[in-house]
UniProtKB/TrEMBL annotation:
Source species: Brassica napus
Name under which the protein is recorded: Germin-like protein
UniProt KW keywords: Apoplast, Disulfide bond, Glycoprotein, Manganese, Metal-binding, Secreted, Signal
Entry function: May play a role in plant defense. Probably has no oxalate oxidase activity even if the active site is conserved.
PANTHER family attached to this UniProt entry: GERMIN-LIKE PROTEIN SUBFAMILY 3 MEMBER 3
Xref: Gene3D superfamilies: Jelly Rolls
GO cellular component: apoplast
Cross-referenced CDD domains: cupin_OxOx
Binding, oxalate: 93, 103, 108, 113
GO MF terms held by the record: manganese ion binding
UniProt family annotation: Belongs to the germin family.
Disulfide feature: 31-46
Gene expressing this chain: BnaA09g44390D
Amino acid sequence: MTSLPISFLLTLCLFVIPSLSSDSDPLQDFCVGDLKASPSLNGFPCKSSVSASDFFFSGLGIPLNTSNRNGVAVAPANVLTFPGLNTLGLSMNNVEFAPGGVNPPHSHPRATEAGVVIEGSVFVGFLTTNNTLFSKVIHAGEMFVVPRGLVHFQWNVGKGKARLITSFNSQLPGSAVLPSTLFGSMPEIPNAVLTKTFRTDDAAVNNLKSKFAV
């Protein structure tokens, strides 16, 4: 059997090893993002001048307005709202629910999510790529984890409001919310695709699109 040359194996390692992490590792103590500049592969260019305030953020403690159709509101602490996170590979969310509120099925393409219930009782579930649902009702002080990229949701099943604090191993994890992605995209996904996918007709698809129109 012919052995692979050492140079090929070294090149393969150089490509594979960085892919094991979510965001690239920083090359300096910190790099507070300059949001006025265009982002690069690993975030924003560094600000030339920083102060202590660049490393502190109070946005996770502000009460949120949950009076919307889903009964949920999210306050993110990511690189766009807290530039001190730039290049550090982490972010957090404050998620608040009205009674019965639902954070609809969605995924984070760039991060694993971990969360802890601060208040209330929340039904948390995620789906694997073989369509297995893992779910549980968790209460204040209990936590959950959702593997990177998997579809998941949260539902307030308590009698009062509920609150989560979630964290991600990416400074900007992204979020693809299935209902609005499928029925509220611009340009629209052709009806022929959606009727075939959901085994329904144009009337049903158009009705759903009307609910998610921008």
